[in-house]
Design brief:
The complex is a heterodimer of chains A (221) and B (268).
Chain A: H1 8-12, H2 15-48, H3 52-67, H4 70-82, H5 90-115, H6 119-127, H7 132-162, H8 175-186, H9 189-218
Helix pairs in contact in A: 2-3, 2-5, 2-7, 2-8, 2-9, 3-5, 4-5, 5-7, 6-7, 7-9, 8-9
Chain B: H1 2-20, H2 24-31, E1 33-38, E2 47-48, E3 54-55, H3 57-69, E4 72-77, H4 83-88, E5 94-100, H5 103-106, E6 109-118, E7 120-125, E8 140-144, H6 148-160, E9 164-168, H7 171-180, E10 185-189, H8 190-199, E11 205-210, E12 216-223, H9 227-242, H10 245-253
Parallel strand pairs in B: 1-4, 1-5, 8-9, 8-10
Antiparallel strand pairs in B: 2-3, 5-12, 6-12, 7-10, 7-11
The chains are: A mainly alpha (221), B alpha/beta (268).
Chain lengths: 221, 268
């Protein structure tokens, strides 16, 4: 039995506040992707370097990031580090947690993309007189980014949805945080959560569309 | 023949209509189980003992209520933010969850008369230098999301125009953050503050004073339209006080001066 009368007019009054929260959500997600991409490239380089310590470090990172819940990673960034006297604000902890997670998944995307490029291309480049770095830079890297582009977009959508976990570490300025707070004050749970769900959906959809348009422009033959 | 069919039909119809009119009070008595939403990280109102069994004032209160109804009690652990979804989705019948009876919330759920009253205390990290409520100005403070004190404290921080407010999802997270120094101070009910400071799980924190917020009267809640059930609950709360059971439970779980549940000069 579901006995609840919806008061939409009351809930919609809070829409501007929720849209402000959506901006913070988008900002955290974007920043986490920028940091995550940089880290993922570094991790990929570590794995390709042939150095056992660097390779082991990168593998450990990817393993932990991909095989533990994002909730755990964010919680650890706040309360885990807090135990050792390192105090990250909720915003920083959330950003760090998601960036850590992104880096792991993106590094794995890059690895898959690299595997899809035949070795023979590098060798062909080398026989044309390119140095190994040049062969990587001009032949492998552009193709790798192209193959990895759509999985990266997926990760961006994930990052947006993961920001909602910030409430567990006291984040109250993003969309999920503001929704929780409005809910606590008025108990109009279902209206606020429904509005938040629609906003999340629209942001994710907009990101996917933008990525598709960008891909169509960038990857023209 | 025809008349007997007609009579049977009438009896069946009467049975069906009386079914349709059963309200929540009937449903609870009929099902033999009373499902209470109780917050179990909110000692001494609700917590778990070493064997993971729910204990606390609210747990005993729910058991008393079930006994009065002649049914068995089922404690449904419900974190603060999930009290209303639990009620609305029919997972619980009544909230015995230290819920402040604000007018804003009464638009959504049906509140009873107060069954308990809290005073607010400031607990601070000993390194923060916070010695009173006023010292919290400009500091990083936190409280449990969705509680009376969280709403009041956040408003206060905005009025001060300095410092930062952080809502955490559980009371345990607030005290963890406080003992780690992530936040400098918190406002919580004085019962919770005492229980956590004495409990010894969190080091380096102490209760430094009272917070000048209004007395936080808390009520039981159920669906807004269930007048029959709300009536029963109101009488039950009244009887708990009259029979001295309220004082007995208060002494058992909290101790000290018994808070008055009536507001002077006004009827409820």
């Amino acid at each position: 039995m579901f006995s609840y009368t919806f008061h939409w007019n009351q809930a919609l009054k809070a829409l501007p506040q929720m849209l402000d929260g959506a901006l913070v959500t988008l900002q955290v997600a974007l920043l986490s992707m920028v940091i995550g991409l940089a880290l993922a490239l570094a991790l990929t380089a570590c794995r390709l370097s042939g150095n056992r310590i660097l390779g082991g470090f990168a593998t450990a990172w990817v393993e932990i990031a991909r095989n533990t819940p994002a909730l755990f990673q964010i919680y650890m960034a706040h309360f885990g580090l807090g135990n050792f006297g390192i105090h990250l604000s909720p915003y920083t902890a959330l950003l760090a947690g998601i960036a850590f997670n992104n880096a792991g998944y993106l590094a794995e995307n890059f690895r898959g993309a690299l595997k899809a490029i035949p070795d023979t291309q590098t060798r062909a480049g080398r026989s044309l007189g390119m140095t190994p770095v040049q062969a990587f830079r001009y032949i492998v890297l552009p193709q790798m980014l192209r193959i990895a582009f759509l999985p990266v977009t997926n990760q961006m959508v994930w990052a947006i949805l993961m920001t909602s976990l910030g409430v567990t570490v006291g984040m109250n300025t993003d969309l999920a945080g503001i929704t929780q707070e409005l809910n606590a004050r008025s108990f109009r749970t279902f209206e606020f959560f429904a509005i938040a769900a629609v906003i999340y959906y629209l942001i994710a959809k907009a990101v996917t569309l933008a990525a598709r348009l960008l891909a169509a422009r960038m990857f023209r033959y | 023949m025809k008349t007997s069919v007609l009579a049977l039909g009438l009896v069946a119809a009467a049975a069906l209509t009386s079914q349709a009119h059963a309200d929540k009070l009937d449903d609870v008595i009929g099902s033999g189980t009373l499902r209470c939403a109780v917050v179990l990280d909110f000692p001494p109102m609700g917590s778990r003992d070493e064997n993971n069994n729910p204990i606390g004032f609210d747990v005993d209160y729910c058991n008393d209520l079930a006994k009065a109804l002649g049914v068995t009690a089922e404690i449904v652990e419900t974190p603060f933010p999930e009290r209303i979804p639990a009620l609305m989705s029919g997972r619980v019948d009544v909230g015995v969850a230290s819920t402040s009876d604000t007018l804003e919330r009464a638009k959504t759920v049906g509140m009873t008369i107060p069954y308990f009253a809290f005073e607010m205390a400031v607990t601070a990290n000993e390194k923060s230098g916070v010695k009173s409520f006023e010292d919290m100005k400009g500091k990083v403070v936190g409280a449990t999301a969705g509680t009376f004190e969280a709403i009041a404290l956040e408003k206060q921080v905005k009025e001060w125009g300095a410092g930062e407010f952080r809502p955490y999802q559980t009371q345990a997270d607030v005290f963890l953050a406080l003992s780690q120094g992530q936040i400098d101070a918190t406002v919580s009910t004085s019962t919770v503050a005492q229980a956590n400071v004495k409990g010894g799980k969190f080091a380096g924190i102490s209760v430094v004073g009272k917070a000048p917020f209004d007395t936080d009267y808390v009520a039981l809640f159920t669906n807004r339209e269930e007048y029959g059930f709300v009536n029963f609950l109101n009488l039950f709360i009244n009887q708990q006080v009259r029979t001295g059971r309220y004082a007995e439970l208060y002494e058992k779980w909290v101790g000290g001066e018994l808070p008055d549940l009536t507001a002077k000069g006004v009827y409820r």
